[in-house]
Design a protein that fits this description.
297 residues; alpha/beta; Aspartate Aminotransferase, domain 2; Aspartate Aminotransferase, domain 1; 7-stranded mixed β-sheet; two-stranded antiparallel ribbon; 9 strands; globular; 1-aminocyclopropane-1-carboxylate synthase activity
Length: 297
């Protein structure tokens, strides 16, 4: 029952434009457990995933600590809103090969943490074509899918793979969670959703190390099966997030602080360059320590 309820909720969050198969859902102890499970399934110690920058810093813990998997940065520029274009992926892939690092996949977060943006359809197609050409895996973290202020604008990787000719579905995997979209971080409900039968089978066996309690599953199955509640919740959550985002960005603008245009997530990317003494990493760290230690933000 919980798998069916989760699949339906994932469909609703994405505007019912895709249909997830409950039999491909593997539950885990939050998105952290889901990422570690996938990393263990897809790569050996010392092998790497390409990750567009900036990325969620705890990925270094989630994917690396116990698996030995490495993360290889894909340098993205603010000039094009940090989109992970095909050229940037190719450059990172070549650098990894020169460093004798075997690349096993690409990891993207869509919507992005920490940017609060989401990738457009063409960029996602480029990424899917890239992993197909290289015969490497794509892990797409969509735990913020329900935080998009206009749900019709967000494009899931599950939509895109249906539009890419000869896409090898065995290479495509999603991570999802209820921590952000439902505000349930303490319940530790994560999801591995893979189009690869072997990955689903192995992940299900590995899930024994991070099970979701029976009581939690029962409660969530009942809650998520209430279609009226789910519809109202998703709609109201988006309205409130949009209002708070607008209020905060306007407040910052009034004191001269700009931000990257964004329509998703629980955060956004501020432009604080004018507060730096010089445009260096060391100056950024000095300013960061001031925010933490003196301003105590």
């Amino acid at each position: 029952a919980i798998s069916t309820a989760l699949a339906n909720f994932m469909n609703r969050v994405r505007g019912n434009r895709v249909k997830f198969d409950p039999d491909r859902i593997v539950m885990s102890g939050g998105a952290t457990g889901a990422h570690e499970t996938l990393a263990g399934c897809l790569a050996n110690p010392g092998e790497a995933f390409l990750v567009p920058t900036p990325y969620y810093p705890a990925f270094d813990r989630d994917l690396r600590w116990r698996t030995g998997v490495e993360l290889f940065p894909v340098v993205c520029e603010s000039a094009d809103n940090f989109k992970g274009h095909r050229e940037a992926l190719e450059t990172a892939y070549k650098k990894a090969k020169l460093a004798n690092v075997k690349v096993k996949g690409v990891l993207i977060t869509n919507p992005s943490n920490p940017l609060g943006t989401f990738l457009d359809r063409d960029t996602l197609k480029d990424i899917v074509n890239f992993v197909n050409d290289k015969s490497i895996h794509l892990v797409c973290d969509e735990i913020y899918a329900g935080t998009v202020t206009n749900g019709d604008e967000f494009v899931s990787i599950a939509e895109v793979i249906e539009e890419v000719p000869k896409c090898n579905l065995d290479l495509i995997h999603l991570v999802y969670s209820l921590s952000k979209d439902m505000g349930f971080p303490g319940f530790r409900v994560g999801v591995v959703y893979s189009y690869n039968d072997n990955v689903v089978s192995i992940a299900r066996k590995m899930s024994s190390f991070g099970l979701v309690s029976t009581q939690t599953q029962h409660m969530l199955a009942s809650m998520l099966s209430d279609n009226e509640f789910v519809g109202t919740f998703i709609s109201e959550s988006r309205i409130r997030l949009a209002h708070r985002h607008d209020m905060f960005t306007r407040g910052l603008a009034q004191v001269g602080i700009g931000s990257l245009e964004s329509k998703a997530g629980l955060f956004f990317w501020m432009d604080l360059r004018r507060f730096l003494k010089e445009p260096t990493f060391e100056s950024e760290m000095t300013f960061w320590r001031t925010i933490i230690n003196e301003i105590k933000l």
